[in-house]
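Closing statement on the zinc ion sub-project.
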Amino acid sequence: MNLSWQLGDTKITRIEELIGPLFDPVRFFPDFHKDLIKKHQDWLLPNHLDMTSGRIIASMHSWLVETPHHKILIDGCIGNDKDRNPYRDWHQMQTNWPAKLQYAGVSPAEIDYVLCTHLHVDHVGWNTQLIDGSWQPTFPRARYVFSKVELAQLEQSLQNLDDSDQFALVNKKTYYDSIAPILGQTDLVVESHDLISDRLSIQLTPGHTAGSITLSVASEGEGARFCGDICHHPLQAYEPWMNSAYCELPNEAIDARRTLLETCAEDNLLLMPAHFGPSHAAYVDRRGDAFSLRWC
Ligand SMILES: [Zn+2]
């Protein structure tokens, strides 16, 4: 079943691809310390930490935003049929993500915009699907929107690829099957701006990657902020100094996270990240020099 939120006249629906105890926190957060589990266990369990395995719970989902005039998809998860070796769990994956989108009442041809907060493997997969042996845009009339810097950096990295770097190798495959096929219907973001006037704005938010963007939705006095991987896990709201192993610009990533959380707290914006466990979205409160979450 899909979960939905109503903000004014705008409906936001979570389209789940997968969820579970996906990551070892020691590997995922280079500065993780097991004392953090004791410190935060009152809210970590059971939705954000699996006690049996000790792994952090992560969700892979897209956000479907429906305004009275537009249908927008934010982040395309991992996708089906894709060669993701050596990432065995994501290799040739088969999920019913398309059926969940359909269950939300929206067909791929109705999507106006596909917004990619960044171009990592778990944010662009459903940009394309395999049809008759070739990768075709899943959303035939959508404009795909992401950062020009992000694309340039990825294309540059393909020139100097270190094959022993598994993450770089997977992102190279991702470029060819999930990004190159949609470049003919892409609008590249070069500065923060309104994509839909008074409704949906794009902010350059470098840190997790050099070209990360975040998205603000406003509707009848209510608002939400889609932050991609600026916060991977709710622990990073309570401990905003803690980067993931995948944050490319560590100092900027911490600054971007603090600024994001401060803005959500001050402006009462619903924080809607790409990977939080249930209930997947939260309001933010200040808590000393860190923050706490009110799940919504
Ligand atoms: Zn991600």
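The mean pLDDT is 96. With this model delivered, the sub-project is considered complete and its resources will be redirected to Aim 3.
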